[in-house]
Amino acid sequence: MKMLHDKICETMEKRRSSPRLAIAIIYGCAIVALLIYQFTTWQRYLAQSKSTQGFPARYEALGPLLPADETTRFVVDRNNADLKKVAEPARLYLAQYVVSPKRLGSEVKSSWVVVDSDCIDREPKIAKTSHWTLVSDLRNGIRLYRTDERSQ
Amino acid sequence: MPWLSVIPWLIVALGMPLLAVYPWVAYCDRKAERNLATFALRLCLAAGLGIGLSSCTYFFGLWFSDPKTGFFQCLESLFFALGGFIGLMWLRVSRSDSDSTASRGPVASGSVASGFVANWRKVLHKPYTPTTLPEGWRMPLMIILGTTFLWALLGMVADYWLAPWGGWDAWAIWNQRARFFFRAGEHWQQAFSPVYSHIDYPLLLPNANARLWSYCGTEFSWTPWFLGCLCTFSLVGSLMAGVCRLRSPSQGILAGVSLLGMVPFLHCGASQYADIPLAFFIFAAVLLMVLYDASKDDAAKVASEDRSKNVPQNMSKDGSQHGSKTVSGGLLVLSGVAAGCAAWTKNEGLLFVVILLATRAVIVCRREGFRQSCKEFMGCCVGALPLLILVAQQKICLAGDNDLINGFTWQALPQRLSDPMRYVQIGLGFLSYSVRVAGPYIVALPLLYFFLGASKALGGRIRGLSTAASIFLLLIASYGFVYLMTPHDLQWHLRTAMERLLLHVAPICLLMVFSCLATPEERLSEESTVKILNEASMEAGSISDARNADDDLPTKVAA
Q1: Which of B83, B374, B412, B517 could make an SS bond with B20 (beta carbons 3.0 to 4.6 A apart)?
Q2: A57 shares contact with chain B (CB less than 8 Å)
Q3: Which pLDDT belongs to residue B393?
Q4: What is the dihedral of CA A99, A104, A106, A109, to 10 degrees?
Q5: B179 and A100 in contact by Cβ < 8 A?
Q6: What is the DSSP letter of B163?
Q7: Backbone dihedral region of B217: left (phi > 0), alpha (psi from -120 to 50 degrees) or beta?
Q8: CA pair distance A117, A128, nearest whole angstrom
Q9: Is A54 left (phi over 0), alpha (psi -120 to 50) or beta?
Q10: Distance between CA B458 and CA B462 in Å, rounded?
Q11: A64 touches chain B (CB under 8 A)
C-alpha cells in the first residue's frame, strides 16, 4: 500500500513539472471554444430568416410620420401565427429604439396608433373593430392610424 | 466609405480621454517597476477609465449645453488636454523628486518648474525594461496569444454581422437611450419617460455611445460594438498585465488566453451590453487593491531586510517609507475611481461599491487597526465620491422606479426567505450557469493545478488575494440574495440575467486562480534544478565508482 502511495506521489510530482502540457491544455481549450463559437454564430446567421435579420429596418420609415409632442400607442396584431418569430415586447422595444426620440408606448392613451402585423395585405382586425382611420400604410405590416382618443 | 472619414474623429474621441487619464494612472502607480506589463496595465486602465470619465463630461454637456456642437467638443478636448498636461507634469515632478531624493537635486532646492525642466529629459527617456519570458518560450507564447486574440476578434466580428444592433438589452436600454441623447437635443430628458424600460439604470454606456456618435457626426451602428470590443480587450489586457505583475509573464499570457477562450464573455461584449464595461471596472478596482497590498508587502519586506542589515531609513510618522520601495496610496484612489465608474455603469456597480468599501474596511481594521482602515477607506472614497454624486444626481433627478425595489413587499419577505425551493433553484442556477460561462475551463483549470501545482512562493500576495476572494464571495452571495427576493418569476430571472452576472466576477476568479497556481517559470526552474542535481549526483556516482574501481585495482593486479 505504501509503495502504491509512493508511486502515485512520484507520478504526480513528475506530472506537475509539465508546464508545456499545461499551456497546451489552456490553448487547446481556448481554440476549441472559439471554433465552436464561430461555427454556432455563422450557423445562427445562416439559419436566421431574412425577415428577422432586417427586422429593425421595418420601423425606419415610421419615425418621420410620428408626432413629436405626443407618445404614440403601439399595438401588435395578435391574430397572426408568424408573431412567434419575434416576441411581442421585442417588437415594441425595437420600434422604440428605431424611432427615438419619437415616443411609443404600449399602454398609453393617444390620438395616434401604430399597428404592427405580419400580414401585409389584410387590414388588422383591431383597427376594423375600433374604427380607426388609416393615415399611412408602410406596406410591410406597419400601419399608422388616427383615433378619437385624446393623449394623456 | 463614409466610415473611413470618421476614423480620425473616433481617434480623437477615444484618444483624448486616454491621454488625459494615462499620466494620472501612471502617477498613482508610480512606485511600480517600469516594465512592459506596467505599461500595458496602465494603458488598459487608462482606456477603460477614459471611457468612464468621458461619459461623465458628455453627461455634463447634456445638462449645461449641447454636447453635439463643435464648441462643446473643443471645450471637452481642452479640458482633457489640460488634465493630461497637469497629470504629466505632476508625474514627472514626482518621478524626478523620487530620483533625486538622495541628492536633493533641483526639484528640492529650486522651484517645481525648474525641477521639471531640469529632469524632464531623464524622466521622459527612462526606458521600459522588457518583461522577460523563459528562453525559447517567447515565440510560442506570442503565437498562442496572437492566434487566440485573432479567433476571439473574428468571433466578435461574426456576432456583429449576426446582430449589428446588439442584443436585447442593447437596443431596449443602452443604445436606445444613447440614440435619445444624440437625437433629441434639448428634449433628451424624455428618454426617462415611463414608457421605456429600466429608466433607473445608470448612464455610462449611453453617454459614451452618444459621445462617440457626436464626434463622428452620425450614428454608426458599429461604434457601440467597437466600444464593447474595447472594453472586452481592455479587461483581457488588464488581467494579463495584472497577473504578469503579480506572478510572471507566461502566467499572465495563460490567464489572458483563458479569458479570451470564455465564449459568453466575448459574446456579451459583442452584444453591446453594459455587463462587460461593468466587469472591467469591478476587475480594475479589485486588481488595484491587490496591487496595493502587494506593494505594501514588498515595502514591508524591504524594510525588514534593511532593518536586519541596520540600514538607516527615512521613515515617516505613520510608518510608511520614503524612497523607491514605498506604498502608493494613489492605487487606492484609482481603485475608488474604478468602483465609482462601476456604479455609473449598472446598478450592480452600486452594490459592488458598498461591498468593496465594507470588505476593505473590515479586513484592514482586523490586520492593521482602525486608524489605517479609516485612512484606506478615505482614500477609496476620495476616488469614488465624485462619480457617486453623479449617480445620486441621476437617481434623484432623472431615474424612475426600480423594478426590483418596486416589487418588494414586506409581506412577501418571510415567504420568500423560508421557501427551500428558491434556494435550490438559485443554487442550481449558479452551478449550471457557472459551467456554461467557464466552458471547457471547468475541467481545464483543475487539470492545470494537476500539471503546475500550487505556488510555493505565494507569500505577500495572500493579503491582496484574501480581499479579492472576500469581494468575489460577497458579490456572489449578494446576487443570490437579490434572486431570493426578486418579485419576478425566479426561473425567468435566472435565465435572463445569471450568465451575465457571473461574467462580472469571472475575471476576479481567474486572477485568483492564476495567482495561486505555480508559474511555468517556477516549474521550469525546478526542472532545471532537478536536472542539475541529477547530473551532479550521476557525476558523483561515476566518480565514486571510479574510485572504487581504483581501490579494487591493486587487489585485481595482485590476484
Answers
A1: B83
A2: no
A3: 93
A4: -150
A5: yes
A6: -
A7: left
A8: 14
A9: alpha
A10: 6
A11: no
Measured between beta carbons, the chain B residues lying within 8 angstroms of A32 are 440
Grid cell listed for B89: 507634469
pLDDT digits (tens, 9 = 90+) for B108-126: 434 444 444 445 455 445 5
Q: Which of B263, B272, B403 to mutate to test the interface with A (most CBs of A within 10 A)?
A: B263
Chain B residues 517-556 with CB within 8 Å of chain A? 518, 520, 523-524, 526-527, 530
Alpha carbon B369 to its chain centroid, in Å, reads: 27
ipTM over 0.85: no
Distance CA B157, CA B269 (A): 11
Q: Do B176 and A104 touch (CB under 8 A)?
A: no
Residue A77 near residue A125 (C-beta atoms within 8 A): yes
Alpha helices in chain A (DSSP H): 2-16, 19-47, 50-53, 88-99, 125-130
Cell of B256: 489572458
> Which tens digit of pLDDT belongs to each residue from B253-283?
999 999 999 999 999 999 999 999 999 999 9
User: Quick check: helix, strand or coil at residue B474?
Assistant: helix
The DSSP 8-state label assigned to residue B201 in this structure reads S
Does B559 have pLDDT greater than 50? no
For residue B521, give the chain A residue with the closest CA: A19
Contact status, residue B89 vs residue B265, Cβ threshold 8 Å? no
Scan for cell 498585465, then name that residue. Answer: B241
How many residues can be counted in chain A?
152
The three grid cell numbers given for residue B97, joined into one nine-digit string: 523628486
- Best CA proximity match to B247, nearest among B37, B64, B480: B37
Distance CA A114, CA A145 (A): 6
